[in-house]
Amino acid sequence: MIIGLVALLAIQDTSRIAEAQTVLAQLVESYGVSGAEAPVRDVVKRLLPSWARTETDTAGNLWVRVGQGDGPVVIVAHLDEIGFRIDTIRADGSLALQTRGGFIASLFEAQPALIHGERGDIPAIFLPRDTGLTRRAPPPLRASVGATTRAGAESLGVAVGQTVTMRKQYVRLAGTRATGRSFDDRMGCAALILALRQLDRSKLKHPVIFVFSVREEIGLEGAAVAARQLGTTPRRVHAIDTFVSADSPLELPNFAVAPLGAGAVARVLDNSSITPPAYVDSLVQLARTRGIALQIGTTNGGNDGSTFTPYGVVDVPLGWPLRYSHSPAEVIDLKDLVSLTDLVRAVAEDW
Amino acid sequence: MVAAVSRLGGWAVRTGGVVVLLTAQPPNRLAAQTVDDLALRFTSMTAVTGYEQAMTDSLLALLPGSARDRIGNVTLTLGRGAPKRLVSCPLDEIGYAVGNITDDGYLTLRRVGGGTRLYPLFDQQLEGERVTLFGRRGPVPGVVAVRSTHLTRGRPTGNEAPFAVDNAYVDVGARSRDEVMALGLALLTPVSLAKRPHRYGDRLLAAPNAGRRAACAALAAAALSRPRVRGTVVVAFTVQRLYADTAGLKAVMNLQGPFESTRDVTVGSRFPDTAVETVSLREVSALVAELSRWMGQ
After folding, report:
1. Which residues in chain B have their CB less than 8 angstroms from residue A178's CB?
2. Which domain holds residue B209?
3. Which of A211, B112, B116, B256 has CA 20 to 30 A from B170's CA?
4. Of the partner residues B120, B141, B198, the one whose CB lies closest to the CB of residue A2
């Protein structure tokens, strides 16, 4: 019946919403904890237009170069997601975990788990705590594959260094909304892919480099490699990443209030970068000219574009409103993805 | 607090009744895979106590000759004559019902079932997770709101008490009360965590209420295996065991009794009351064989 409801909603979708959902769902349902992004990178390659030529750098970032000339505009979205890495296999067969990225650990506690092994996923569970009742700070999380010895766990293919996540599913909600995990930053990746599909390459005034970066969640590491490689040459960088929104009954409305469904958001001020006011004004004018819904806001978090600013490159991060960030139940509005796609295309073609 | 935590430790039988010792078993007429499938199917179902109808509909379809009484119990009578015995399992689970709908399209909840012995973090398992609302137009997916990690940064959190049901705001993607109602949702709509039973390890099954559902799966499998029955055995899948002083079981006994003996089927589970309550499907298979044998004794 849930499938029936989703099918009904899909029938009512415009073709743009339908295409956005098709791309996004495939990205959301692939797994790529920071440092282990290969599965997501493969999905991105598959979804890119056939003309796109890709390169993967030594860090693992995926590059798509478009247009000719000097002074490229760089547009970057990150491939990775939060999760865990197996730190130790204990004598009792349980697995000690190390977090990759920042999140509320209790949201993973006592949930089904997947270990991403060399020969496929190994089902497991995140163990419930056995001491302490603090709301969001359980003792360090452990996982279990059901084995009671280290050898038993290893016999199932478990090894130190493998990444661990919770099973994911893209689920359509009412209207044009959807839930899943790792919309941060698969929405950004989807916007780049959709913009590349629609891009009018004959209109480009300058080269554009689309970068699908790695290891953003653990310190913008992949983007830093790309920024170092490009140095002072880019004329501008756009990190396409989450605008964590306070559009929720649990958040303080002091800042970050960007309603879902009201369009893309210029992430003007966050914890890593500030967009110069003249650039914000110019962006607003561009959106107005092309009839693109755009909100202006400030939120928390860092963005990949900030690794370019030490080279004198202006960072104009763009995003979309997200509820319940870094949780298993993130919520987005597909209309915002369409709006963001249009904006990415606009900054590539016209700005 | 200590008692509640200690329950998480080892394997434990959560409900009262006969504890089944599982050792060597005779061959079972149903293939092990079939029993596994039934357990998987039952753990994917939701039967909030007092709102078990969808699951009892499935049982009526699964068990030819079964019937449902006024309170909702599903019973199947095997054999005839004396002695008359009862074997039962509890169908229901602790869950939630919609308590209110806000103007901006969120739903708030009240818990149905569960008392002072409930695992202290039971409600916290809702936070930031997917839920299913069983509305008049069919199941509707939703999520329970959680504060965004990023927006907690730089703000004091203090020593927070565990998440309670009063903190739960269900987001179904609606923007208004009218949009919620249009989805077939209303006050008292039953709500549960989204059921995603998960197999792992050596025939282990993790799911909410896995112990209760595995017990019912074993009982259904035993009934379906056409066992040789001595006298009359009433097989009962009972509702409202967690509410109103085990009303469902008492109703069966009053409506269909007296019984010479009664047996409540239980399966040992690990991590009870959590979303990864775990049972051994190997033990469930053994239980099917043992129940079939008991019916013939």
Report:
1. 173
2. 12-18+27-92+197-296
3. B116
4. B141
